Amino acid sequence: xxxxxxxxxxxxxxxxxxxxxxxxxxxLALMLKERGYRVTGSDHGxxxxxxxxxxxxxxxxxxxxxxxxxxxxxDLVVVGNAxxxxxxxxxxxxxTRIPYVSFPQAVAEFFLADKRPLVVAGTxxxxxxxxxxxxxxxxxxxxxxxxxxxxxxxxxRGYQLGAGAYFAIEGDEYDSAFFDKGPKFLHxxxxxxxxxAVEFDHAxxxxxxxxxxxxxxxxxxxxxxxxxxxxxxxxxxxxxxxRSYQGEYASFGxxxxxDWQVRDAVDDGSRFRFSAIxxxxxxxxxxxxxxxxxxxxxxxxxxxxxxxxxLSAGQIAPGLxxxxxxxxRQELVGEAHGVTIIDDFAHHPTAVALTIEAVRLxxxxxxxxxxxxxxxxxxxxxxxxxxxxxxxxxxxxxxxGPVFSKPQDPLATQDLFSPAELVADLRAAAxxxxxxxxxxxxxxxxxxxxxPDDVVLIMSNGAFGGLPxxxxxxxxxxxxxxx
Length: 483
Prior knowledge:
six-stranded mixed sheet; 23 strands; Rossmann fold; UDP-N-acetylmuramoyl-L-alanine:D-glutamate ligase; Protein-Tyrosine Phosphatase, Chain A; alpha/beta
């Protein structure tokens, strides 16, 4: 950015966001609006509910990327990582002297300077864990700020600008902008880090596991020595990151050598109950409404971090017990015709397998459908062909959707994930599998094939064409028609 910095912007300065429709950028737009700035945005396509949320906040969004979107010139432009150097609006920006920053730069400069950032990082579990951390701090009366890439059901939104000292923030390892290919979390000035799973992902920007592991090592490189660092013991690559760290850290997880461990974890049908053990001594008993052992592990990390911040087990427990989760993370969409429908964000083979395991624990003895859309930049590639096949094979019935098309990330046919191959491999292993050519076709198939007492788990890191609620509606119609 050139001479003007965010801190030097006058009150009610005009800030424009390029690629405002993404969850993170839209949330940033709302945060800037709340701070009193005049905010506008542009995007190629913006639809409800995000378009409605921004409109209700008085944030004008210009359809499409055009040079004249920068007339008259705003005081500052925030450039999202969804746009490239060749974007026409970006090209116009670079031809001017308008100051510009990336999304994480804007977050750091506007919102983290006078806070204690608590950065939650890892290949998966970031959003849920950050939302849980924020809610525990809120219930403990600490009035935290927070920012997550999803909708916290407890807060009713994805951020809060609180009066307290702490800022819980999701530390994304994805790149920052076309002019900054480093991870977003390097901008967040961590005064504590909770590092969960570390596995290979984001094949469009990372070449292998060693490459992504090195990114997390860079995060720990910028942590001040006295700051709490919690690292998950259950993932070998996370331990490799820990070994690179020069300071003190504590480990957590189900592994028997972890500093923080879980004991007596039981899903009673409505919540998990468990004890947290610290260096062999019971720290406290807790309950968590969320499904799955992975969420118990997420909660254990939050317990360990908040303990390091000085909270007692009695202060931590109410937040865990009342945690409402995050939208599209094991979200119960509804039940119709005796069929339970769950919407989930899982898009990594490990997350897919753990989510299937979680649903089985919560709904034992019921036939489980796993419906998956290959949509993320990694799942669209063959790199996860076999791992995804193994993960989905743990369900009773599998439905695979078409590979999502991304013009900004074109792939050769030989590099694309193959739904047909996945179905063939599952059927060869005596597993029931179906390849859907469209969302409507999948919806029609499931409406006919599902029977009462089934559970349908729909997984995608995108909208999947609204499939979860479309299926709920068609099953309700089936019931109304007496079929």
